[in-house]
Amino acid sequence: MLKAFAEYLQSMKENKTYEINGEVYSDNNLVRVPKHVERPMQLDLTSLDSVVQLVKAELPKVAATPLFVQVVSPRKVSVFSTLDEVKGRDSLYRAVCDGPDFRTGWRSQEEAIIELRSNFIPDDDVDYLLNLLGRISKESEVMTEDNGVSQTVSARNGIALRSYEPVRPRVCMAPFRTFLEVEQPHSEFILRLDENARVGLFEADGGHWKLEAKANIKAYFEAELAGEIADGTVVVMV
What we know:
Blueprint: H1 2-13, E1 17-20, E2 23-26, E3 43-45, H2 48-58, E4 67-73, E5 76-81, E6 91-96, E7 105-107, H3 109-118, H4 124-134, E8 142-146, E9 151-157, E10 161-167, E11 170-173, E12 187-193, E13 199-203, H5 208-224, H6 226-230, E14 234-237
Parallel strand pairs: 3-6, 4-14
Antiparallel strand pairs: 1-2, 4-5, 5-6, 7-13, 8-9, 9-10, 11-12, 12-13
């Protein structure tokens, strides 16, 4: 009896196939065990220059070329190989910008002044906004008139004197929000001030700055890796 039971268990391990209506069926589930392939560990970077240096230095060691340099976003770049013999790719490098990143919304007057001086490219609109905020103090009685398009800010000076300051509804500025090796794109912002002298800056270009930033990064790689692109070992894409 034990022998018969052992033979039964052995028969259950065998893979049997049946042909039914022209189709082949198996009574066992087969799982393919993929071949082990050594893959390099992805290296995390923080600048575009480091990507260029590594691509130039390690390109001869990469088995499957070309290498693809993908501008994923204004703050992220990925480098990976083409398909190898087992239809796999090597994810080699990833660069993530570690510089300041602009946030839209409301901020205090003091926060806005510090941010304008430290995280924006100096230009006429930055100077205009700094000059405007410099004439409004927290101690002032600040009133706003809003017609839905533009604002007028009224700040009391002293006891009775009140000055009226028309506020431009939009300003065009370039905050630091992509890799520092490329030009920071300008874009329009809706400018708002409230009764507490808080400053509101809201992006008003529909995200066009992101396209410009990615194009700037692509142009940077095309200049720095011109030789590798020309011989077909590197492809830059957005």
